[in-house]
Amino acid sequence: MTGTRKLWAALLGAALGAAALPARAATGDLPDLGPNVTVGRLPAGGGTVIVRPAQGAPVAAIELWYRAPSTGFGPKPMPAIARLAAQVVAASKPIVGGPLGKTVSEAGGRLAITVYSDSISISAAVPASAARTIVRALTTAYFAPVVTEEGYRAARGEVEQESQISSYDPETVVRDAIFAQLFSAGPQHFPSLGDPKDIAQIGFADVKAFATRAFRSQNATLVVSGAVDSGIADAAVSGRPAEGDDGPEAPATPELAASAAPVTKDFAETVGGYGWIGPAISDTREATAMDFIADYLFRNDDGYVTRQVAEKYPDAMMLGQFITLHDPGVMFVVYSGKDNTPALKALVDDGFAHVQKAMAPATFAAALEAFKYHLLSDLQTPTQIADNFGWYSVEGAAEYAPGANGERGTYFKAADSLTPDFVADVANKYFSKSPVVVTLRPGLAEKTKQQ
Amino acid sequence: MRTWLAAGALIALLGAAPAPVNRYPTALGTDLGVTKLIAESDADSAISGVQVFVAAGLDRETASNNGVSALVAECITRTLVDGVPLRDAIAADGGSISYTVDGRSVHYYLEARSEHLGALVTLFAKALTAPDFSAATLAVARASIAARQTGFETNPLSVGIEMFRRSYYATGAGRPALGSSASLAALSSRDVAAFYAANYKRHAVLSSVVGDMTPELGEALRKLASALPDGPVAQVPERAHAIPASAPRIVAHRDVAAPWVVVGFAAPSPSSGDFGAMLVLESLLSDAFDRNSATTLGFLEKSVGAFYLYDSTPASLVVYVNGSQVDPSLALRELLLVSHSLSQRPLGAGTLNRFKAAAEGQFLSDSVNLSDRSYLLGAFASQGLGDDAINAALAALERTTAADVQRVAKAYLQRYIVALVLPRQQ
User: What is the span of the domain harbouring residue A340?
Assistant: First the structure.
């Protein structure tokens, strides 16, 4: 059984982004993220740089986050173009030096690219001794991207394979189906990774145009965390100057569907899922209450729901999460247990009914203590810290990141302000509405063929 | 003139400053009287983690009680403490507990806010020293372990590694960490209590902490060990079968989509002078066959990968071939050719440096969170690498020469066992 306690969607691989996000990265004030965090500007009018030195393992996480629609900037959505373009840049060999992927690997590091509906992160985890070199290499690669035909060919195969693998992942399939129903248009309506057919249709010229438009210093948030000094951002390069058509992209306003019909899709096994619209990131108290509810119900093996699942159906898969987004956030649940899938649904329903009543004070106090511990535990590695700052920055609320200002920050203050009644009210407000219901079942494709 | 010369020498020295080395905070050992504690301090860490190792691992199991180590541990986490199961009591206090059974030990990992960790260790000590092995608790524990076995059995890599270990080890270290459904069903409360009584002694305990080492935590760990019975900790043989030159093959069928091949080799222990060279070989065999991907591949996406398993003594190296990515016969042939070639001639300086960097990167990225770091600290220290064991391992890697790699390849990579995990229809 798998639960989840990740309170932001860094590992989810899809989410929706912002309507009109504050243009803080380009022009506004810098956020105050606490005494241990240095926040500044990238050189030559670039975006924000966040450096969070941390003691411990001699490693560093170096991440570039961009707000860019996964479906491209044009009127015709091209699912996966953001993911493919980022991979092509990493695979392309510039005139001087090797491809970024090779540079990171030769430094003993690991390079990952994760795409979300409205943003993308390029993340390197490297030995601390290589951190400056990789800050330079990463910003060189993505502030003035070189895109080659050879890189495009190599990257396309890799992204197609990634897409193929994700199509077997019930969590991804359910989440994509929920988002497609909750939102009637815009990047949030489409899967951020697309399927192999989508990727095959993206040409070299499309990729080049997207990379040039999206991957600019002015549009970037650079986050560095780990065994580094606060001056490491000096290693970042300036990138190419802003051009006329380099301005902020048109706001990708999420369009909520008027109503959401149940979805049934063909899949290798029986899987169920729900999704509800939740509060915007700006409503920090409600958003934190939703995180608390997700943690209370679905945290690994000892959540209210996951514990019952572990005891009654130990082979089952169950996870639930609130995805904190600019506006609105989304709560989603996915579960699978072969013949027991209907019984799992009953446990999920019971869980959501349970949180709509105020918890007993002692139960609530223990759950809140556990919740705050899980937050801290999820911020223990440089990559977790960098993901945290990157995600909340691109969603337009860096100061609300749980890592900002530690336990004296906005997030922990919101957590401390929760009460049993308030949590129940928030649960009633959002979960009393009909959710999007997704069912995956084997044999549907065959049945359709026969008909 | 002398001043000028001195200044010139200083400039030359500064100019030739060595490249920065990657080191963890220095770990220090403390003798708590009845037990030993090793701690690595991260001064700015809000939370801390502690591993409590008990020398009650697989190497103390027999064929008839396989799974008992896990069953004891599972019962301990479910023992009532002040009326609440231990794991629930710890969760309610804002912490977590988990355990892992390996070849040489069972290790319990507790994590919490640094200022709370001592109190949680005190809770743990109550269950550890007075565990509930009643039939009811045993039944729940057995069901929980059985569920984890199911997940294990569906992973072809885990299955292949276990097949190799069974064949390689001459002791319980080669048996499945969680036993089998049959062995668990056969274990009674009396069997579980007997294993506990034989192995849970105060001198069988070693602890390692990463985070903020508070005096309360040290005292809680001292009391934990003191509360366990005194008495000698039985020595167990650490033996493996000699791998025959005939390269034995073992075959199993599972519900997997494609065949997987696991090739197992003997390997030096972390305290050996060959440790650094084997880390380089692990890295080399892990990366040498893969297509050039722009991003780092996960184990499912890789066609060939390697794991250096040093949780048991003797240690071993396994190299896997993922049949969904590459023709297994072809990859196996290439792997064996490379292994042979590595023993025949030394690596060039550039190649050696590249794979040393990759090996260091892999080692570091496997030891970043509190759980992994505290595990490695205790596991290495118990195998003779000293208190500052993780840094000692990094230093060993840095010292490795091309001649070391060639010598170790010759000593360890020429004999192997092949485990094949095939789809059922084959």
Answer: 255-450
Q: How many CB pairs under 8 A join A and B?
A: 143
Q: Give me the residues paired with residue A273 across strands.
A: A334, A438
Domain ranges of chain B: 27-227, 249-423
Q: Please tell me the distance from the alpha carbon of residue A334 to that of residue A319, in angstroms, as a whole number.
A: 6
Q: Let me know whether A236 and A263 are in one domain.
A: no
- A107 to chain B, any CB pair closer than 8 A? The answer is yes
Per-residue confidence (pLDDT) for residue A448, from 0 to 100: 62
Q: Are residues A195 and A289 in the same domain?
A: no
Residues of chain B contacting residue A403, judged by C-beta atoms under 8 Å apart: none
**pLDDT, position A95:** 82
Q: Using CA atoms, how far apart are residues A391 and A67, in angstroms rounded to an integer?
A: 10
Picking from B295, B325, B353, B360 by the largest number of A CB atoms within 10 A of its own CB, the best residue to mutate is: B295
Asked if B139 is an interface residue toward chain A (Cβ–Cβ < 8 A), one would say no
Residue A287 and residue A209 in one domain: no
Q: Does A55 touch chain B (CB under 8 A)?
A: yes
CA distance B354 to B351: 5
Instruction: In whole angstroms, give the CA distance from residue B247 to residue B98.
Output: 38
pLDDT value of residue A174: 95
User: Which DSSP string corresponds to B289-347?
Assistant: TS---SSPPPTTT-SEEEEEE-SSSSEEEEEEEETTTS-HHHHHHHHHHHHHHHHHSPP
Kindly indicate the confidence band of residue B61, based on its pLDDT and cuts at 50, 70 and 90.
very high
Identify whether A359 is part of a domain: yes
Q: What is the pLDDT of residue A446?
A: 64
Intrachain domains B27-227 and B249-423 with the same fold = yes
- Find the CB nearest B296 among A87, A111, A155: A111
CATH for B249-423 (3.30.465.10, 3.40.190.10, 3.30.830.10, 3.40.50.12780): 3.30.830.10
Q: Note whether A329 and A412 are same-domain residues.
A: yes
Percentage of the residues of chain B whose pLDDT score is greater than 70: 95
A269 in the same domain as A219: no
Residue A416: what pLDDT? 98
Q: Which of A126, A381, A407 sits opposite B361 (nearest CB)?
A: A126
Tell me, what's the pLDDT at A251?
53
Over residues A357-381, mean pLDDT:
96
Beta-carbon contacts of residue A147 (< 8 Å; ≥ 6 apart): A85, A88, A89, A92, A204, A207, A208, A211
- The topology (CATH level 3) of B27-227 is Cytochrome Bc1 Complex; Chain A, domain 1 (3.30.830)
Average of pLDDT values for A84-95? 93
List the 335-374 stretch of A: residues with Cβ below 8 A of B.
366, 369-370, 372-373
Query: Can you give the CATH number for the domain in which A259 is found?
Result: 3.30.830.10
Statement: residue B315 has pLDDT above 70: yes
pLDDT of A17 > 50? The answer is no
Query: Amino acid identity, residue A125?
Result: A
The reply to whether residue A106 touches residue B24, judged by beta carbons under 8 angstroms, is no
Is the CB of A370 less than 8 angstroms away from the CB of B88? no
Residue A434 phi, psi dihedral angles, 5° rounding: -70, 130
> What is the count of structural domains for chain A?
2
| Rounded Cα–Cα distance for residues A146 and A272 (Å) | 43
Interval A169-196 mean pLDDT:
92
pLDDT digits (tens, 9 = 90+) for B179-201: 998 999 999 999 999 999 999 99
Q: Is A310 on the interface with B (CB under 8 A)?
A: yes
Prediction pTM value: 0.91
Task: Please report residues of A whose CB lies closer than 8 A to that of B23.
Answer: 58
A406 touches chain B (CB under 8 A): yes
Q: Do A111 and B294 touch (CB under 8 A)?
A: yes
Write down the pLDDT at residue B426: 54
How far apart are the C-alpha atoms of B256 and B423, rounded to whole Å? 5
CB contact, 8 Å: B155 with chain A? no
Rounded to a whole number, what is the distance in Å from the CA of B196 to chain A's nearest CA?
25
Q: Is A371 among the domain residues? A: yes
Same domain as A67, residue A212: yes
Both A366 and A225 in one domain: the answer is: no
Residues of A in contact with B94 (CB under 8 A): 369-370, 372-373
- A203-207, B125-129, B382-386, range with the lowest pLDDT: B382-386
Which residues on adjacent β-strands are paired with residue B210? B40, B49
